[in-house]
Task: structure prediction
Amino acid sequence: MSVVAPCFNEAEIVGAFLVRMSAAAEAAAGGDFDIILVDDGSTDGTWPIMAAAAAADPRIVAIRLRRNFGHQMAVLAGLRAARGARVLLIDADLQDPPELVGPMMSQMNGGADVVYGRRVERVGETVFKRGSAALFYRLLRRLSSVDIPVDAGDFRLMTRRVVDLLVALPEQHRFTRGLVSWIGGRQEPIDYVREARFAGATKYPLAKMLRFALDALTSFSIKPLRLATWLGFAAAGLALMLMGYSAVQWARGHVVDGWTSLFIAVTTLSAVQLVVLGILGEYVGRLVIESKHRPHYIVDAVISARGLNAAAPLMPLPGVAMALPGLTLPAGPASS
Result:
């Protein structure tokens, strides 16, 4: 079993996470496991702690990205390095309990391809955070063409087959839980209580949450484009009604009246146009980014007591060379 844990400024937590995760993995898989920590451009002491742990324990691999590429890119880097027949994806903040891996393994023994954690309670989160999360998941499920489970994050156990399919998908704007649902297969939930952070502050403030939600909606639904179309029709209908009203008022000789209705009409139509242009711009912008075919991330260093061969799955995109300390991977075909 491989455990993939992305980290960003988690110096206060990494040590405790490794203690609990190692104990849980030992109980679930015996000694046949590894833990892959991915430092997503941390600016605190996260990397030295990860590097020391990887140098001391052959079951730990520490990967450092050159800068902060974002949580989903760190997840991808870790999944590409994972070698296990089963792969557990978990954040290092200890909000998702590592001890749940045992029951997840047992449930997968029954034939599931994916066992994902479903949050039945969120401890230590504000009413706004709980309410906005619930609204987001249900809105996404309603708009998406893929059946994405509600109240489920990236915390999940996946088979080797699912992981191979997942890392082969080329999207730049990645929404991992949606991509896993898109892959299909037998996917089962396991309920748990999501704890408060062990230490430190959340790495998902409101601005990041909104960007993440926008990526999710535009990645798995074209219904916002249809919404733009219906807004256009509604605006056209309103314009026709106002034209009729203006004609009637002109016929009655009230040629001075109507400034208020004219002002409302202009502002309404302008607002609709800006909304439609904004929606179109989001989709067009994503097409431009996808067309560039840039690598998802750049690996700055890999530390493992097993040697740098542990980084072999971290291949770049075709035509892009990636240098690691003591190792240079040639540019060429790769699954990316």
Summary: Confidence is low (pLDDT under 50) at residues 308-336. The chain is about 45% helix and 20% strand. The two ends are 22 Å apart (CA to CA). The longest strand covers residues 114-122.
